[in-house]
Amino acid sequence: MTVLPEGVLRDAEPLDAPWDCVDKDASQQVKLQVRAIDEAIFALRQSSRVSPEAPIGYLLCGTERALLLDTGDAKEAAQCPIRATVDVLLDEWSESHGVARLPLVVAHTHGHNDHTEGDAQFAGRPDTTIVAKDVEAVHRFFGLTETVGTTTTFDLGERTLLIAPTPGHDARSITTIDPAAGLMFSGDTAYPGRLYVDDLPAAKLSLAAMVDLAETHDIHTVLGAHVENDRHGRDYPVLTRFHRDEAPFTLTTAQLRALRDDVQRADGNGVHTGDPMTLYVGKAYWPMLKLLARGVAWRLTGRG
């Protein structure tokens, strides 16, 4: 096994194990943490010391190409060496399968900066396609329409993915499904935390479609891009760096159904309490200010 860049931690823990990269003490030496989901899929989580968002990206490998979903919140390799880490993982994959290094497609679950800043590290990388983050570019590259619930296929070579437009949180949001692995990659549309809804009608359509797709393709695990709740369902405020007793980052299909139902019940702007996500619909300025104030207080007292 090759050596990952300095500051990158590889673990062999189960998916529900705690992450060192968001622990107050363990994160001191960690910029990025890599966790294998199976032999061909890797979760890459940025340290909360690099970004308080601690975003999670995913590298999926086939026999003909690889797909990186999200590049995180650090433009510079010195902050977080996402490109060098991907290079090592792809070299290992290629060697173990006796093939040349795979061409890489860099795409995004959606277009917000904490998922796209790392694109700069991949500029000029050979055999690399970076999908621009505007809606038109995303839909054009994957062959998507604007109809929520429709899918297109994206073949990695002996691993065929399904891509679906799922706006609501962001007009550029997509959901990626790996039917063979039973996995759904949901970005910021479903994870243990807060769902910020920009377009409520679109979110209702998208969550309903995601549940239908999960049931149709026997999905057992939903993998999102953040964790904002602890194991008791309490949320971490905005800007919190350290996640004590963090909830597992995976969701079940049953939890996805619960989220769909919570979104369907939401009837306007504001905060709608739910499980596994609390919904922040529209411009919820006062609740967001309170979240921010809590986060600042946690930072000042050393709690977060």
TrEMBL record:
Metallo-beta-lactamase domain: residues covered: 54-226
The protein's name: MBL fold metallo-hydrolase
Species annotation: Flexivirga alba
Pfam families, sorted: Lactamase_B
InterPro entries membership: Metallo-B-lactamas, RibonucZ/Hydroxyglut_hydro
